[in-house]
Task: inverse folding
C-alpha cells in the first residue's frame, strides 16, 4: 500500500485530541496536524500533501472556510471534510471540497475515499497538463485516460472527456475547452449520457429512459427540446456533434463536429431542425411525439431547470 501525506486540519482547540476519523490512525499514512490558523500564505514555505482532511465534527464553520484557506496556502491537494452524522444536513457543494466522510467511518472506507480523492486529483492534473492550446484539449491517449478515471459505485466514470468536452460528475460541472457550460440538471445529465456513448445511435425512448428514468411519464418530445437547448449552449464549435438520425433519434459524434456537412443530416436533417424550417424533425409519426423542436412550446420551469 502506497503511503500518503495527509494534512489534517482541525480547530485549534482539537489539536491535541484524537484524529477524526479515528480509524485514520490505523492506516499508516504520514499525518501532519495543523489548525486552520496555522496554514501559511503561499509565499512562505509550501506544505506538501496528497490529501487534506478537515475535521469539522465540532466546528462546522471550518467546512465552508477550508477550501479558501487551503488555496491561499498554495496547497492543491483534494479536500475531504469529516462530519458527525448530525452535520450531514449542512453539507453543501459551495464548500468546494472533494468528499465528506463520517467520523465513525472504518479503516477500509477511509482508505478507499483517500485513494479515490488522490487518484482523481492526479488524473485530472495529468490531463490538464496535456492541454494542447487555449480552448482545446489533447486527446492523444484518451483511451488510457478513460481507463484510469475514478468511477461511481454503479461503474460510471465521475469524469468524462470527449474531445474538447470535459464533464465532471463529482462537481456537476461541464467545460468546453476553457469555457464553462451553464447547464440545468437535466441538460447536464443528457450531455453526460451522450459523451459516455459516442457514435452510438439512441432512440428518443432509450434516451428518455436513461436520462429521465422509467418513472417519467412525459412524451419523447421533451428529448428534442433538451437536445436543442444543449446544442445552443455548446455553441458553434460543438453544436452539430449531436446528430439527428432521421426516423430514429440522435447520435453524438464529437470527432466529426468540425466537419459541418460531411453527412447528409448536416444538410437536410439539420435544416429540418432550424427555426425557419417547415419539415418535422423525424417526419410525422403516430401520437405526434416526434414533432419538430422549433414547434414545441418552451417547458415551464421545473425540477429539470435547476442549475448545477
Result:
Amino acid at each position: 500500500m502506497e503511503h500518503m501525506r495527509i494534512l489534517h486540519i482541525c480547530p485549534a482547540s482539537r489539536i491535541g485530541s484524537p484524529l477524526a476519523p479515528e480509524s485514520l490512525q490505523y492506516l499508516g499514512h504520514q499525518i501532519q496536524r495543523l489548525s486552520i490558523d496555522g496554514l501559511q500564505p503561499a509565499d512562505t514555505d509550501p506544505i506538501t500533501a496528497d490529501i487534506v482532511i478537515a475535521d469539522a465534527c465540532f466546528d462546522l464553520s471550518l467546512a465552508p472556510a477550508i477550501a479558501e484557506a487551503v488555496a491561499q496556502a498554495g496547497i492543491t491537494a483534494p479536500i475531504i471534510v469529516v462530519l458527525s452524522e448530525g452535520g450531514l444536513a449542512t453539507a453543501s457543494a459551495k464548500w468546494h471540497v472533494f468528499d465528506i466522510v463520517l467520523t465513525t467511518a472504518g479503516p477500509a472506507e477511509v482508505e478507499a475515499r483517500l485513494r479515490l480523492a488522490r487518484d482523481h486529483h492526479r488524473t485530472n492534473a495529468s490531463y490538464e497538463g496535456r492541454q494542447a492550446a487555449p480552448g482545446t484539449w489533447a486527446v492523444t491517449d484518451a483511451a488510457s485516460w478513460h481507463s484510469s478515471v475514478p468511477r461511481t459505485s454503479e461503474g460510471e466514470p465521475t469524469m468524462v472527456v470527449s474531445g474538447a468536452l470535459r464533464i465532471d460528475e463529482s462537481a456537476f460541472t461541464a467545460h468546453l475547452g476553457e469555457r464553462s457550460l451553464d447547464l440545468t440538471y437535466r441538460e447536464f445529465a443528457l450531455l453526460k449520457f451522450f459523451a459516455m456513448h459516442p457514435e452510438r445511435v439512441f432512440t428518443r425512448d432509450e434516451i428518455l429512459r436513461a436520462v429521465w428514468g422509467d418513472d417519467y411519464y412525459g412524451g419523447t418530445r421533451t428529448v428534442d427540446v433538451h437536445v436543442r437547448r444543449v446544442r445552443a449552449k455548446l455553441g458553434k464549435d460543438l453544436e452539430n456533434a449531436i446528430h439527428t438520425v432521421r426516423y430514429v433519434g440522435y447520435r453524438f459524434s464529437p470527432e466529426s463536429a468540425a466537419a459541418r456537412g460531411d453527412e447528409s443530416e448536416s444538410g437536410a436533417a439539420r435544416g429540418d431542425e432550424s427555426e425557419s424550417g417547415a419539415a418535422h424533425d423525424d417526419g410525422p409519426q403516430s401520437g405526434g411525439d416526434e414533432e419538430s423542436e422549433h414547434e414545441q412550446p418552451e417547458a415551464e420551469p421545473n425540477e429539470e431547470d435547476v442549475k448545477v
Observations:
- The two ends are 36 Å apart (CA to CA).
